[in-house]
Amino acid sequence: MLYGIVDIGSNTVRLNVYEMNDSNAKFLFSKKYALGLASYITKRKLNKTGQERLMNVVEDIKEDLTYLNVENFNFFATASIRNVKNSEEVVNKIYDELEIPVDVLSEDDEAKYSFLGSVSIMNKNNGVLIDVGGGSTEIVIYQDKKIKESYSLPLGSLTLYNSYVSSLVPNTEECLIIEQRIQFELEKAKIKPQYIKYMCGVGGSVRAVLKLMKDLKFVERGERIINPKTLSILRRELCNNDKQTYDKLIASKPARIHTLIPGLIIIQQICKFFNIEEIQVSKYGVREGYLNAKLGM
């Protein structure tokens, strides 16, 4: 049996297709749409242009699922729809016009599914998991591979870009403002400062940073561990708002040229907050966790 999971995020919409055998899910392929829904929010509402573009993407995915004979599927949305005032209107529009129900995840559920999707590959029993999205950042503190505390910061790589960056990449002053905003949100969430050595990183922003670090030879090919100290070195490599910086970003992750550095700053600031010594980048995350929960795996 084939099973499709569609994740409607603030930065991208992604379809994953799995083959199900005896309650085991084998990943087959993924298709990504760089929609950038967070860029279509006006007065905390997803505007008409954003709604129409989302409808077009959902319709395309529905056609793909039909063509591939994927009869079992779920669509879910995270901060992209959760945090807008007209969330119910958008979800109803998709259902009324395309007959596709969309499950809007709460902050707690998004954090839980990100954790469940990654827990099996974690190198350490105790640590912190972060899922850096386009519109929010989920933080899960866990012990003995069980959730102890979870938090959601109302900022992501795309929302920070839209709010504070005047060009393709942030300048020195804008980087400082972004750092201050992240620190403010960490304090506002009332997360207790503590010493945690290990971090598991989830989501497209974290994976994009890992790929860039491999491309620039900071991390060996095949490795998924990042030393947090190298994040500062990477920041210095990308500090100039010039063609050389653009070329590095385009060669590695062209679709994330504008969001990669804001995402990097989020990771770096959370590492500083918890005194992280090792980051493991997970291949899996909220989509796999959601699938496991839906199928009772």
UniProtKB/TrEMBL annotation:
Signal peptide range in chain numbering: none
GO biological process terms, semicolon-separated: regulation of transcription by RNA polymerase II
GO molecular function, one term: exopolyphosphatase activity
EC number(s) from the headed UniProt entry: 3.6.1.11
Pfam families linked: Ppx-GppA
Entry keyword annotation includes Hydrolase: yes
InterPro entries, per database record: ATPase_NBD, GppA/Ppx_hydrolase, Ppx_GppA_N
Record keyword Hydrolase present: yes
Domain of life where this protein originates: Archaea
All residue ranges annotated as the Ppx/GppA phosphatase N-terminal domain in the record: 22-293
Keywords, alphabetical: Hydrolase
The name this protein goes by in its record: Exopolyphosphatase
